[in-house]
Write the structure tokens for this entry.
Amino acid sequence: MAQAKTTVRHAPPPVRSGSRDAAVLGASVRIRGRISGEGDLSILGSVEGDVSVRGDLTIGDGARVASETLEAHAVTIAGELDGDVSASGPVRLASTARVHGDLKGSEISIEEGAQFAGRLEADFELPAALGKAR
Amino acid sequence: MASTVIGANITIEGEVIADEDVVVQGTIRGKLTAKDGVVVEAGAVVEADVSGGPMTVAGQVTGNVTSTDRVELQSGARVIGNVKAARITIADGAHFKGNVDMDV
């Protein structure tokens, strides 16, 4: 049998499901500082500092984020957040979310079980009946 | 499998502490401390002191590198800083400026 001439010294890198743009900060990761970027970001650990991404942001169950401002497109929160969210897309609080801060987005949904203290700001048109009442 | 990936378009300015493997494809400025392996992929920019377990560098690192295990500078890597590790390999084509301390 012919054998490949090159010897592999190291195991091949693990196949990652996400694209090269995606960033995942694992559960044991703690970051103090500013995170910015173009791609998507998933936070499963602990972040203290501002986050600004162009893509989608996910704060996973068990994650803790404390930041002044959090900017992203779509934002999904299943963990703990202390800070304001400014999203260009929808904001979703999953049932395990605990959020203290203001939420701004194109749409905002809060699942049953989520804890939230803060203001909501979403651009939508009031139904005509409500509009007249004002 | 690495559970922390700092993607190609992500920049972190500050301190990163991880108890698990870290793969850097983007930019870190500040400090990176890992308990386990660190991979700085080609195209990544790390302007930070890096410490951790086994390290593989194919990208750019400006700062001191400290490993409890081995450091591998692959071809195309660009490292400016001191490297302290029990074992080190510098591949043909890697750029390196700094001191090596193998603790002998």
Observations:
- Residues 52 and 89 of chain B are 16 Å apart (CA to CA).
